[in-house]
Amino acid sequence: MSNKSIYRSIWEAISGEERIRVAVLGSKGSGKTVFLTALANHLLNHDPLRCPLNGWTVTPVERDLTGDACADGIPLYQYADARRSLAAGEWPRKTKDWSVLRLALQLRNKKRRRDVLLEVLDLPGERVADFPMIGRSYRDWCEWMGHSFGGVFGASDHYKDYCAAAAGATEQQELYAAYRRFLAAEHAACSLSLTPSIVKLGRDAVFRTGDSGEAFFANIADVPLGLDAEQQFVPLPPTCFKADAPCRKWLRSFERSYDAYRRAIVDPIGDWLRDVNQLFYFVDVLGLLQRGPDVYNAEKAFGAQALRMFARPDSSNGLVRGLQRLLDTFLRTRVDGATVVATKADLVLSEENRSHMKNLARRMFGNVLMSLGLDARQTEVLSCAAVKTTDEYGREKALGARLDGMSGELTTYLATDVPDDWPDSAAWGVGDARFDFQPTFPRFDRREDRAPAHLGLQDLLVRMLYLQR
Ligand SMILES: Nc1nc2c(ncn2[C@@H]2O[C@H](COP(=O)(O)OP(=O)(O)OP(=O)(O)O)[C@@H](O)[C@H]2O)c(=O)[nH]1
Ligand SMILES: [Mg+2]
User: Fold this and answer.
1) Looking at ligand 1, which residue's alpha carbon is closest to its atom 12?
2) Which residue has its alpha carbon closest to ligand 1 atom 14?
3) CATH of domain 6-126+269-464
4) 36 within ligand 1 shell (Cβ under 6 A)
5) Cα(305) to centroid of ligand 1, in Å?
């Protein structure tokens, strides 16, 4: 049976256009937005020499795509602005709202022509932490929180402390303060899975962080735990669901506030993701090597959470689940490709190091990829630099790049090697001197018709657009 929903197959048959929906996920700073800009640049100005696609050529189709986007209520990805600032030597600012890049394309090779509407989602990394709310009622979510922080993705004493405080709380404000303390402790332990994500990234596009747990706690002290001060919610521990528990009295209001939050923030993303064909998960393995084992563990938990969202439901089902699956075939497209990408591959020298980058990503997420219920050809681990910002001086084992501003000189420096496996955590700390990967400045040509040099971007495009031989 097709992986596309029946609804979608009918839509495509009528319009004569194939729609490919792609979710690009990854934690903050993993390179999603830079990738989206480079991708659009290459597809809108395809040069088969710079980006060979197994004999296919791509031409953009002039068409107004804003109408479609408005219908979904999702902002369009502002490609032109993003490219302009990259060409002026600035990396993108942190993404604060979700958006979708839409491109109407005609793909041709010697035998075939395909009309494709490509849609790629750019999401601020923080929102992934809310994914467990998709399809879960408030009670299910509470259970999931207990399950998740209770040991499946890493036991958290902070959550146990929170549960103890919650069980004894008599005032709602007490409960909120305890949950904020939990979030701050998790933040200090480098966790990326802070939910509701609105605490970190508000609807007002204010991004909150902090160098320490206390600093973060102070920064979120006045932020509502929900849509606004009247609609706050926190997870209730299992003891609060008992009939005589004092904290049970908040159940109803939390249920309402949780539902409102889901409707406003989470469900629109969940609805979009329900029709996704391909998933790309970006991981900055070089940044992880630099930042040490705590960040590594946090990223691993976060990535697993994001990828598992797309697992195929297991086949052992009762009647209700059977009916649900039948309904799903009408409405839900099943992901048929999941690719983990080790990004920023231009910061290292040689194919050997890039292959080590892939190994590191595979060691992190290989098991999760296998657990998604896809067959081997549908999963892949790649390394890529969406934009190549360095030159190689192979014989000297050196790289050249601008390290101090666009107008600055080209600096040549000795490249750092990537280990074949993650270091032993006992001998690996924050800012480990062995892993000195230099941040560089972007290299986009001022002429828009010249897409940037890259490393391995074509491999991602071949998978994304189904151009395998
Ligand atoms: N050398 C190199 N650096 C890159 C590349 N892509 C991204 N970077 C670096 O990574 C940083 C983050 O990239 P973004 O694309 O903004 O990251 P993001 O995943 O969109 O992050 P959020 O918007 O915070 O979720 C950039 O500012 C660059 O410093 C690349 O291809 N090569
Ligand atoms: Mg971004």
Assistant:
1) 29
2) 31
3) 3.40.50.300
4) no
5) 21
pLDDT digits (tens, 9 = 90+) for 210-267: 999 999 999 999 999 999 999 999 999 988 998 888 888 999 999 999 999 999 999 9
Tell which residue, 231, 240, 304, has the closest CA to residue 262: 231
As a 3-state breakdown, the chain gives helix, strand, coil percent values, each rounded to 5, of: 45, 15, 40
Q: Please state the atom number of ligand 1 nearest to the C-alpha of residue 125.
A: 25
Q: Is the CB of 342 under 6 A from ligand 1?
A: no
CA atoms within 13 A on the CB side of 414: 5
Other Cβ atoms within 10 Å of 204 Cβ, number: 9
Nearest one of 259, 235, 310, 228 to 23, comparing CA atoms: 310
- Of the residues 28, 33, 93, 354, which should be mutated to test ligand 1's pocket, given the most ligand atoms within 8 Å of the CB? 33
**429, 423 in Cβ contact below 8 A?**
no
pLDDT digits (tens, 9 = 90+) for 72-103: 678 899 999 999 999 999 999 989 889 999 99
Q: Which pairing describes strands 57-60 and 398-402: parallel, antiparallel, or unpaired?
A: unpaired
Ligand 1 and 441: CB distance under 6 A: no
Domain boundaries, the chain: 6-126+269-464, 135-266
pTM check: above 0.70: yes
